Amino acid sequence: MRKFKVGIIGATGMVGQRFVTLINNHPWFELACVAASSRSAGKTYEEAVNGRWMMAEPVPESVRNFKILSAESNIKEITGAVDFVFSAVDMKKDEIKALEEAYAKAECPVISNNSANRWAPDVPMIIPEINPEHAEIIPHQRNRLGTTRGFITAKSNCSIQSYMPPLHPLREKFGLDRTLICTYQAISGASKNFDTWPEMIENVIPYIGGEEEKSETEPHKIWGVISGNEIIPATSPAITTQCIRVAAEDGHLGAAFMSFKTKPDIDEIKQIWRDYKGYPQKQNLPSAPKQFLHYFEENDRPQTKLDCNLENGMAISLGRLRPDTQYDYKFICLSHNTIRGAAGGAVLTAELLCNEGYI
Fold first, then answer.
1. Is the pTM higher than 0.70?
2. Residue 86 DSSP symbol
3. Which phi and psi angles does 17 have, rounded to 5°?
4. How much is the pLDDT for 242?
5. Is the CB of residue 328 less than 8 Å from the CB of residue 263?
6. 293: Cβ–Cβ under 8 A, 6 or more apart, which residues?
7. Residue 7: in which H helix or E strand, if any?
8. What structural domains does the chain harbor?
9. What was the pLDDT predicted at 23?
10. How is 280-343 classified by DSSP, letter by letter?
11. Average of per-residue pLDDT across 39-63
């Protein structure tokens, strides 16, 4: 299999940095160019991230001397050098929407980590283990854009990555009626660490702008169906959330409550979680966790510090499944927000799209 040439637009921010580390030594993908704002354009990558590199590992040797291109001014040069791009730009929503569409119209597929295009009716918002079939909308999107190769796919919000995966197989089998989730979200979700956000040390903030709306609505699009040239969102289950910023560096933890149309028993739920395999596991995609849903029997697991890096940050950790007085059951769930919830999930989506021939 030939290696696909990849570009990253928005390569200097936290999610862009994560993309750089994940693509380094990837068996299918080879980094061909990096792009950022005009402030960084012309610098080497090492110069641009000097003093603000936020990954645990050092800047990969292979990318240090890459010259940064302008994400806005060098579209023709970038699209001519790559098979597709990852988008992690930090701009106003309407600017992101226009920029990503410009890349797509230049016949360059865009796998976006941004929210700007998530609600376009023909833009698939894919979690590879849940709705890989939504890629089938891409030909309709290409018709709208007037492209042969170019299209946009969007990553869903990081907040839903911990609870949608365990709810999905249960919804399919038993009919999920309603769910309530409180998320406790790490500061890296705001592209910060404790050095850049010291106010978060020993602190909790009971509000994250726009997060609860995304957490309640995006699952319905992911659980939706393709009808004609659009994705029609599901109308159930009823979802309500609260999203809270906590003093953890990585890992979004959720406390989830769920009720069913047909109530399963606890052992049945655990077995379904253990056995569940999605498209990435069945196809053995390079970034796929071998065991997608891990259940811990210990009462004090999962924990952000111990478990968010499980299977290279791509697995979902679960625990404390038990009956509830208001809902049928409740449990704890955890995902790595900048890997599974951002760059890693986008890389897995790109693997799916390459495997299916869309790229």
1. yes
2. E
3. -60, -40
4. 98
5. yes
6. 165, 166, 273, 274, 276, 315, 316, 318
7. strand 4-9
8. 4-157+342-355 (3.40.50.720), 159-336 (3.30.360.10)
9. 97
10. HHHHT-TT--SSSEEEE-STT---HHHHTTHHHHTSEEEEEEEE-SSSSEEEEEEE-TTIIIII
11. 95
**Residues shown for the chain:** 359
Element (H, E) at 226: strand 225-227
Helix 164-174 to helix 211-222 angle (10° resolution) is: 40
Per residue in 108-117, pLDDT (tens digit) is: 999 999 999 9
Active site residue 158: yes
Side by side, the strands of the sheet bearing 316-323 are 204-205, 238-246, 176-185, 252-260, 329-335, 316-323, 293-296
Catalytic residue, from 252, 308, 336, 354: name it. Answer: 252
Name the region of 234 (left: φ>0; alpha: ψ -120 to 50; beta: rest). beta
CA nearest neighbour of 331 among 187, 217, 174, 166: 166
Q: Of 158, 243, 308, 354, which is the active-site residue? A: 158
Q: Give long-range contacts, CB 8 A cutoff, 24+ apart: 271-277.
A: 272/169, 272/170, 272/173, 273/166, 273/169, 273/318, 276/129, 276/169, 277/129
Amino acid at 200: M
From residue 184, how far is each of 12, 167, 309 by CA, in Å?
Answer: 26, 18, 17
Cα–Cα distance between 168 and 254 in angstroms, integer? 15
The residue written with tokens 């190769």 in the block is: 149
pLDDT at residue number 2? 82
Whose CA is closest to 185, among 129, 126, 241?
241
Alpha-carbon distance 58 to 62, whole Å? 11
| 98 pLDDT more than 90 | yes
Whether 1 shows a pLDDT value over 90: the answer reads no
